[in-house]
Design a protein that fits this description.
Layout: H1 2-6, H2 43-55, H3 59-72, H4 77-89, H5 93-106, H6 111-123, H7 127-140, H8 145-158, H9 162-176, H10 181-193
Helix pairs in contact: 2-3, 3-4, 4-5, 5-6, 6-7, 6-8, 7-8, 8-9, 9-10
Amino acid sequence: FAAALLLSACASKAPVVKPDRPVGTTSEVLPPSGEPAVAAKDPATQFEESLALLKSKKFKEARVGFESLAKQHPEFSGPLTNLAILDAKANTREAAITNFNRAINANPRNAIAYNWLGVLYRESKNYPRAEQSYLQSLQINAENPAVVLNLAILYDLYLKRPVDALARYQEYQRMTNSRELKVTAWIKALEASQPPPAPSAAPGAPTPVAPKT
C-alpha cells in the first residue's frame, strides 16, 4: 500500500490551466472540519476509504480520513497531496501550498504536487515560482503533457516569452499526437508574431577581412 500512499492516486490527471478558466479554483467550498478523527485502522484501508469518499465528492468526510492519516503517518505523501487538493478546491490557496510542500518533503519526486504548486503560484502571480514548479515536475516526469501545456500558457500569457511558449505548445502537440484547435490557433498566432529570420549570406558571397595592422 506504500506506493498508493506515497503518491496521490486521485490526482493522476494533473490540472491543465486554460486562459479563459483558471484551474485550481471552484465554486465548491468545503464546510469546516469539526468531526473527531476517525478511529485508528489499517492505513491502506483508511487511504482507500478516504479516496473513495473524495471521488464521491464527500469532501468533508474525505478530509477527516486524510487528516487522520497525515497525522499518523506524516512520512506518506499521498494523504498530504489529497489534503492539498481539497484545500485548492476550497479556494484556501495558502493552506494548499503548505500541504503540497509537506507532500513534497515526504516524497521529493511527487510530480503531481509540483504541478499543482505551479497552478497555485501562477494564481498568486508568483510567476517565477510557478515556472520553477512546472520545471521540477517535468524533471520528475518529462512525459506529462498537462504540465507542458501549463508551462506553455505560463510563458505565453504571463511571462510574455513567446519563443519559449511556442516551443512548449509544439512539444505538447507532439506528445499528444493531436492537433487541438485551441492549441493550433495559439501556435499559429505565435508563429505569426515572430520576426522573420535574418537573411543568410548567399553562397560564394565575399567575407569581409579585418585590415592588417
